[in-house]
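=== RUN LOG ===
request id: a7f3
mode: sequence -> structure
chains: 1
length: 304
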Amino acid sequence: MRVTVAICTYNRAALLDRTLQAFAQLRIPSGVDWEILVVNNNSSDRTDDVVAAHARHLPVRGLFEPKPGKSNAANLAVREARGELVLWTDDDVIVDREWLAEYVAAASQWPTAGYFGGTVDPWFETQPPEWIAKNVHVLGEPYALAQHSDQTFALKDEAVVGANMATRTAVLRQFPFNPALGPTGGRAMRGEDTELLARFRAAGLVGVWVGSAKVRHWISNERLRVKYLWYFYSGLGNYVAHRDSSSNVPRLFGAPRWALKKYAALLAKCCLSAPARDERWLRVLRETALMNGYIQQTRRQLHS
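=== RESULT ===
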């Protein structure tokens, strides 16, 4: 089997270096021909130097996508992939030694499956605050975590994240990433993986959870703050508004009146529950920030 590992990166040379170091420890099964594609999405740091250094001992091939946007970079990787199976991970991830081998085994065991997902555990830069440590089970979205089990089974509605995902190359060439979605520089728009998986499922593609294909996702100190959670969830709200085609609704200051009313109620509820820093507050924070992002995006769309 031919396998392509794809990593899209933007100005994270130091993290990318650590990610690529872990690939030197991978166990490559007999009969597997593999490559690593690192797509530089117009970085201004030492990304190309890091790729060149690891190309001396790994089958790394550097690509350059000048158009900003993770989805644009991912689509370039799909076009250039030589493997029949593409394994997706990020530039801030450490893969387990058996990661690639577990996906190869699952792809052989489930020949009709179009996509696969694996375990993503947190890798905190420092000990997280108590309110995060106690509630990490509800922070899977902002921290790109997926921890369903160590077993292998057909997916239903379980979450799969781009930090640890595999797809048949032929499937992705039929269903490319949506360039309108995904991080673009400082833009918070999220949902590129969610939207892609929704199209997979709508087309009737079989997905498989491979819990033994594990990675650890870097969570920096700056992400251990309420400010980051608000930023991330607002990006989800941008995505919800982007896919919402309803436009003929009463508006106030460019935003749907119903959304402003709901946001005001949520904001009050969020402020009142904030001192507890518990699961309930985090869930309300998510809904409040999401509605904030929804309002921002609907205003942008009205004037675009």
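=== NOTES ===
The domain at 2-221 is CATH 3.90.550.10 (Spore Coat Polysaccharide Biosynthesis Protein SpsA; Chain A).
The chain is about 40% helix and 20% strand.
=== END ===
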